[in-house]
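Our consortium's second objective concerns turning raw sequence data into structural hypotheses that experimental partners can test. To show how far this objective has progressed, the report includes one record in full. It was chosen at random from the queue rather than selected for favorable results. The single chain below, 142 residues long, was entered without modification.
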Amino acid sequence: MTESTAMTEPDHEATGVKRLFLLGLGWVFFGLGVLGVFLPVLPTTPFMLLALWCFARSSHRFHHWLLTHRLFGPPLQRWERYKVIPLTAKIVAVGAMSLSMVYVGFFTQAPWIAVVSMGALCLIGAGYILSRPHRLPDGTTP
């Protein structure tokens, strides 16, 4: 498999009920991602990444369609090929997690164990996000 086809062809495709389940789940995630474009409290990117993952395992056609989509395709291609998270997305994600922690920690009556658990999960998520590159490797084109 060449580098150009590696991005558009999933590693393996499920069959039967598993394929239908993943295909349906992919469309649910895609729909939630589209809603996220219009609703500021609903994130778009994680749902599109989940949809891409589901389509990669259920339908070559829909996987390719989402990867080449006019609006959603370019960032998904950068993620799939290089695991790139744009700097603005990193700032928004870590900022949203931080604001959420401040809100839950100081303005709710959440039990301390919930706040600590949320903090730990946010730290893990922020660590992962910040560990990904925010630019394409040198010499590559978008």
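The partners drew two points from this record. Helices lie at 3-8, 16-38, 45-58, 60-67, 73-82, 87-107, 112-131. Residues 1-6 have pLDDT under 50 and may be disordered. Both points have been shared with the crystallography group to help prioritize constructs.
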